[in-house]
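The data are set out underneath:

___
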Amino acid sequence: MKFSVKHQDTQSLARICNIQTDHSTIETPVFMPVGTHGVVKTLSPYELYDLNTNIMLSNTYHLYLRPGTDTIKKAGGLHKFINWNKSILTDSGGYQVFSLSNLNKIEKAGVIFQSHIDGSKHFFSPRVSMEVQRILGSDIIMAFDYCPPANCSLKELRLASSYTEQWTKEAFNYLKSSNSLYDHQQIMFPIIQGGINLEERRKCLDQMLPYAECGLAIGGLSVGEKKEPMLDIVEFLGKEMPNNQPRYLMGVGKPTDLVKAILRGIDMFDCVLPARNARNGQIFTHDETINIHNSKYKNDHEPIDVKSNISFAKNFSKAYLRHLFKVNEMFGFRIATMINISYYFDLIEEIKYQIKENTFLNWSKEYLNKFENND
């Protein structure tokens, strides 16, 4: 895997970079659509290709439970199983295991957890997470980490950092002693934990650096903390993380969050928000964010978003989309999801243009002033 910085903004930490995997070249900043179960809900791989998607995210925990690693291994890996020929990043499963706090027991060796599907018991350790991700065959593997809740005590925060260091070392050593099952390279990103405590974040960053060969991730944010402390942590780490590796902010977020984080030096993002909110009727357009359930759109026969790059947004009206939602028609969810994912991609392209022109800082102020309280 290769990484290079193509352009550094002169007024902020924003930058444009290239990540080269065996499956695709990814220009950053990049938003990765989330295909938890191997699919971005309601969309096909071909529609993602049409949006110029070069990397998507899938989830180790969910794929481990269903359909299971045997099925994916027999298919020849996740790329072949889902018919996807671009890059894949897989989360380690750590966040999902810890988010089900009433179904797990955390030990030094790993986590015992109950399936949220059938209650069956399972054990995830750093080695198990790596073994599963080896079978999945993702291009970028996330280290198994301990993601503490936002309101945890300093004791738990420190325990999370300690376990994350130990588990990352175990995962790194396992990967070094094993080979990919497929004909492409896999690289691991360590995850920096530490909540909104700057001291813990600095310590965890230092602990992760020996295991960061081509990328570092910031975990444990957007889990219930207030927005300003989150941005303080992102800004701190954006200044401290290595310049010669991609920086990945996990699970964030709103369009305005992306703009703020890119200003602070972040390269990679993922979030279920655009697809999930689409299914709930929240549509991101280039002029405003709308709730398609609102009665004012019942007779609004104007296009959903004439500034969008996709035909769904320009050829269907708000009234029609509202009707599809009211009758619970799946095509409405598809239209909304395509529009929202496309909006995120359009936003990233505009940001890259502004970075190249060294106008990103002023542009971001205008964008945030317009959309801060709207998305």
Notes: The mean pLDDT is 95.
